[in-house]
Amino acid sequence: MPATERLRAFRSFNWKQKNNFFIMRRNFKFEKTLRNDQWEKLEHTFPEIFKKNYRRHNVRLFIDAVLWVTGNNTAWNYLPEKYGSKTSIYSRFCRWSEEEIWHSLALKFGDDNELKALFGSVVERADLFIKAKEYRNLNGAEG
Questions:
Q1: pTM to 2 decimals?
Q2: Is residue 73 within 8 Å of 67, Cβ to Cβ?
Q3: Per-residue CA distances from 55 to 7, 36, 50, 69 (Å)
């Protein structure tokens, strides 16, 4: 890794001293959530998703959590507690990726540039998940 990349990575963390140890905290800048008008458009477009034993609030919180992870381009274990259980959110993300729900959302909202950009990053992450799963299956690992 070149020195400039190491320095950039070093600066992306917030260093705090506690009991003579330095604690490294990552600075996450993406805090975008769906606006009410975007949510209503989403809810009316895919009612079958929201009737699948999910509470309306939980689906919105789940989508906001996925947008947070993809917007910050980070691992799932950095997800803040306000979004709920990291493993539950990741499991549902995997299910939605396998069912290609993210692709459907991205295609449906191709006319709205903001939603298209948000769901585009989610689709990229979903595609990576699917490719990794296929790779594991081809190599005999369970996934």
A1: 0.71
A2: no
A3: 44, 16, 7, 21
